[in-house]
Design brief:
Blueprint (H helix, E strand, L loop, with lengths): L12 H20 L3 E2 L5 E3 H9 L3 H5 L2 E4 L5 E4 L4 H10 L10 E10 L11 E10 L4 H17 L5 E7 L3 H15 L8 H9 L14 H4 L10 H16 L5 E2 L11 E9 L9 E7 L3 H4 L7 E7 H10 L9 E7 L5 H13 L4 E3 L6 H10 L2 E7 L1 H6 L1 E6 L5 E5 L3 H10 L18
Parallel strand pairs: 1-5, 7-8, 12-13, 12-14
Antiparallel strand pairs: 2-4, 3-4, 5-6, 6-11, 7-9, 9-10, 10-11, 14-15, 15-16
Helix pairs in contact: 1-5, 2-4, 5-9
Bound molecules: histidyl-adenosine monophosphate.
Histidyl-adenosine monophosphate (HAM) binds next to strand 6, strand 10, strand 11 and helix 11.
């Protein structure tokens, strides 16, 4: 028997429905913030991620799914969404669009070859947002407020928003130098990967999964101490706008994030859930003012975030968000070969009118069909057999009230709609053509 690949999962219909609901909330909030959906390919040229996310980041150096296609090109399954969206932004010249600040969001699968555990998968879903074209701290604050609004709309309360600034190029350079001189002589106490990082990209030592709790890293200098005046002003303004919008946050001076493209604001949202264990970061993001240019576009600032949808779902389940129940409006119970044609006709009419409806395809008798209708959580069961056909009627059972009535078969759709819209209009004499409530 084949089994799913390690780090992947199936979403069976019941879980899929919950994801659809989650996406519905995400799309509603996105609309309120005026972000529009973009869909980009799940694979891109490998080089895009090397240049975009950073050659020496864990994501690119250890976790990519890369393959050579039949045309001998190197492709990589996207490990994150930002690089692809930036590529698309440049390729489609969105920087020249009539609306100068482009606000985009996406929902889709990402791929990282990580060690799977609860909340960490090799194929996972991200909902992300990217806003291009403004270096205003208002946009950083808007993006954070958008992320927080998603959580509010989902009623996920027990979260902490961590924000920090790593500053502009000059601040980052000064910080890098300070970090290197601090780590010089201490690096031997860190893991072998950190030895390499020290030579290639010392900032990445700070998000090492192995050494993150070591005293050496805890006591390392913090980026905020090396911010230039203008970088500091930018960060102060972000905080000012967060305060204005009454968004709870904590400044976390150790936060640097694991991707190379960030400048200025970085942020993460942690959910306080025992079930998520170490994987409690449900959202991460920040500003990236050099990325568009470094990928070949005009100098354009950007800022964004991404949520891990599975982690969001864990947070939702822990507050008993169960989604819409599965149900049918109508189960069409046809009893007999001769009745099938009319049964299909009536079913089709009800479906054309928008009723969620189903029928038996296995020639089952009455009893198993009642059982099936109950399993499908049908509100109404329309029974159509030989006797009903002779009289031109249909028996309609309301599973909620338990009542059963006989109506002219042509009135089936109207009667169900009337009942669904106006549950009090119980008519006991519906077989009569003159009855108002089922007209
Ligand atoms: P990231 O921090 O790498 O940032 O990922 C964002 C979120 O994706 C994480 O906080 C986590 O919830 C989820 N996530 C990451 N890896 C996994 C995994 N293996 N399994 C399950 N969930 C995972 C980015 O991807 C950036 N592109 C975010 C961004 C957008 N920054 C600016 N714009």
């Amino acid at each position: 028997m084949y089994q799913k690949m390690k780090g992947t999962y199936d979403l069976l219909p019941e879980q899929t429905r919950k994801y659809q609901q989650l996406e519905k909330v995400i799309r509603n909030v996105s609309k309120i913030f005026n972000y529009n959906e973009i869909r980009t390919p799940i694979f891109e040229a490998t080089n895009l991620f090397h240049r975009g996310v950073g050659e020496t980041t864990d994501i690119v150096s250890k976790e990519t799914y890369t393959f050579t296609d039949r045309g001998k090109r190197s492709n990589t399954l996207r490990p994150e969404g930002t690089a692809g969206v930036v590529r698309s932004y440049i390729e489609n010249k969105l920087y020249a669009a009539k609306i100068p600040v482009q606000k985009l969001y996406y929902v889709g699968p990402m791929f990282r070859y990580e060690r799977p555990q609860k909340g960490r998968y090799r194929q996972f879903l991200q909902f992300g947002a990217e806003a291009f074209g403004s270096s205003s701290p208002m946009l950083d604050a808007e993006v954070i407020s958008y992320a927080v609004s998603i959580l509010r709309a989902l009623k996920i309360k027990d979260v902490t928003v961590h924000v920090n600034s790593i500053g502009d190029d000059e601040s980052k350079q000064k910080y890098r130098e300070a970090l290197v001189s601090y780590l010089d002589g201490k690096v031997d106490t860190l893991c072998s990967d950190c030895h390499n990082r020290f030579k290639t990209n010392p900032l990445r030592i700070l998000d090492c999964k192995i050494d993150k709790d070591s005293d050496v890293l805890k006591n390392a200098p913090k980026p905020v101490q090396y911010l230039t005046e203008s970088a500091k002003e930018h960060f102060d303004n972000v905080i000012k706008y967060l305060e204005a919008m009454e968004i709870d946050y904590i400044v976390d001076e150790s936060l640097v994030r694991g991707l190379d493209y960030y400048t200025h604001t970085v942020f993460e949202v942690n959910a306080h859930l025992d079930s998520l264990g170490a994987q409690n970061t449900i959202c991460g993001g920040g500003r990236y003012d050099n990325l568009v240019e470094s990928l070949g576009g005009p100098k354009t600032p950007g800022v964004g975030f991404a949520f891990g949808m599975e982690r969001l779902m864990f947070a939702l389940e822990s507050i008993n968000f169960l989604g819409e129940p599965e149900y049918l409006h109508l189960y069409m119970m046809v009893l007999g070969e001769e009745q099938k044609e009319e049964g299909m006709k009536l079913l089709n009419r009800c479906r054309l009118g928008g009723l969620i409806s189903d029928i038996d395809f296995l020639d089952k008798g009455m009893k198993p069909q009642f059982k099936l209708a109950a399993n499908l959580k049908a509100r109404f069961i329309a029974i159509y057999g030989e006797e009903e056909q002779k009289q031109g009627v249909i028996n309609l059972k309301d599973q909620e009230s338990g009542e059963q009535i006989t109506i002219k078969k042509e009135k089936l759709y109207n009667k169900i709609i009337t009942e669904l819209m106006n549950p009090s209009s119980n008519c006991t004499d519906c077989a009569e053509e003159s009855c108002d409530s089922c007209e």
